[in-house]
Amino acid sequence: MGGVASVPTDPSRSLKVIGAGYSRTGTLSMAMALETLLDGPVMHGGSQLLGREDAYVKLWTDIFAARHDKSRLMPLLKQATQGFVAITDAPGNCFIAELLELYPDAEVFCVRRNRENWWKSWQSVSNAAGAGFLNVFLAVVPGKRWYPKLVTQFSEQQEEKWGPMTEERMDEHNAYVKQVTPPHKFHMMQLSEGWGPLCKVLDVKVPETPFPRANDAEAVEGLASQIFVEAGSRWAVILAGVSVVGYGIWRSWGGR
């Protein structure tokens, strides 16, 4: 993993853990830890949305669009999570109750973080994610072209549930997760606790390796840099083609 999208190869595997921590609470570290403990692919939202093929990313836009129609929503959500052993980050953490209905045996982990630090981190990422030019710039990149729409859909879904985004959102989200999760399935932790809480609940041996300490922001920035290079290259080819055609037309008309 480490910011690279995991791809399931065995559709018979199912979610054992729902990482319900809000975005910017160490969701990548949690995903890497779960991938080690459960020995399988983990659906980390940021890595998936920026690193998977076009059809898979579009699937999540369909899921958001179907959020008010359960008969449509549930099959789509099942399709998007099939073969994964765990899920963390948005957009998965926007559908905790629905995931619990699909995977009633899954353990649910919420993550606490200092509210002030979380809010600063959230604002820095959300400001960049909402840049208006991305709609046009990413339009030529398969997979990534859906990202601006997903950002809009996420914001709409969040506002429907809680209103405008504030520094209280992480706590509001955690309270919601606790409300919809059976008490014996709900677990609150801090990443500073390391392997302990996860291993105890999952009844697995504590790994000899250190608990992952991934920097979500750095991982996303790394993916973003690759995306901008890809988008820039595609636009360069497009503009070069337009220039050649334009020059040909100009020469054609100029020769008359």
From TrEMBL:
The molecule here is called P-loop containing nucleoside triphosphate hydrolase
Q: Which domain of life is it from?
A: Eukaryota
| Keywords of the record | Hydrolase
Q: Which InterPro entries match?
A: P-loop_NTPase (IPR027417), Sulfotransfer_4 (IPR040632)
**GO molecular function terms listed in the Swiss-Prot or TrEMBL record:** hydrolase activity
Q: Which Pfam families match?
A: Sulfotransfer_4
**Listed PANTHER family:** P-LOOP CONTAINING NUCLEOSIDE TRIPHOSPHATE HYDROLASE PROTEIN, P-LOOP CONTAINING NUCLEOTIDE TRIPHOSPHATE HYDROLASE
